[in-house]
What does this fold into?
Amino acid sequence: MDGDRLERQYKEHLSGYREWRQKEHAEEWLLFPENMGGMLSIDETAPSQGELYTIVSNKEAHNGKGSIVAVVRGTRSEDVIGILEKIPAHLRDKVSEITLDMAGSMRRIARTCFRNATVVIDRFHVQKLAMEAVQEERVRLRWKAIEEDNRLRRQARG
It folds into this structure.
């Protein structure tokens, strides 16, 4: 069988694509409220140049089946909030923890949409901040040591 024909038949007849409820808005956003859990993660991703998407995932699904709660084109907090508020409030209120990076827009989304959740900064960004602070201090101490060495050399020369 011709591969193109098989692909068309799958899309048109077997997959249920034509009856898919989210087809009309799928290029802008997708919601899967049935995947909600008590611990969520929110982050942005850039699958190709110039495209940004906000992804909300259920951490309890461990990146497996049922982990995607929402995919929204863009990262503007107003846009993402508008889509996430389509999820019934009683489901959003069950979220106890939401992990995110330190972007202000992500914090605004978390605070607005998941009122009962504790906001947790993801480990990657905490480690990055700590490493940057250690590097700054290392450079500062190195310059201090060089200046002290230069001072002692000048003093020794008399």
